[in-house]
Amino acid sequence: SFRVRDKIFVTIPPEETHVHLFLGEEDREQALAMYPAFLEKLFWGSKVLGLRITLAQATPGVVKALVTKAHETRVRKDAKPARKRPAADPERKRGL
Questions:
Q1: Cα 93 from Cα 88, distance rounded (Å)
Q2: What is the rounded (10 degree) CA torsion for 9, 31, 37, 48?
Q3: For residue 73, with 0-12 CB atoms within 10 Å meaning exposed, 13-18 middle and 19 or more buried, which class applies?
Q4: Position with higher pLDDT, 40 vs 81
Q5: What are the tens digits of pLDDT across the range 6-55?
Q6: Would you list the DSSP string of the chain?
Q7: Rg of the chain in Å (alpha carbons)
Q8: Do the beta carbons of residue 42 and residue 51 sit within 8 Å?
Q9: Nearest CA to 66 among 94, 92, 28?
């Protein structure tokens, strides 16, 4: 598996015939529409988490572009600042 700060964005199963990419829904659906010959949805239980690429049928340039996109997506997602909780209202705390 390939990771950004311990978060996986690509895995290669032991048989090395496929690559699993973890992409957002919009990128995933666009890629599926463009390359249905070698891409399929990657399920985790009943949830779709990414793409499964059949390497024997895939175009190397497309695979490289998708891996780059998965990496960029993970870096961008991981770089978002933590959400701050709103400051507590002091009057509300006292029950006013």
A1: 7
A2: 60
A3: middle
A4: 40
A5: 889 999 999 999 999 999 899 999 999 999 999 999 998 999 999 999 99
A6: -EEETTEEEEE--TT-SEEEE---HHHHHHHHHH-TTTEEEEEETTEEEEEEEETTTS-HHHHHHHHHHHHHHHHHHHHSPPPPPPPP-HHHHTT-
A7: 19
A8: yes
A9: 28
Question: How many residues make up the chain in this entry?
Answer: 96
Q: And the tokens for 45? A: 């239980």
What phi, psi does 85 have (nearest 5°)?
-80, 145
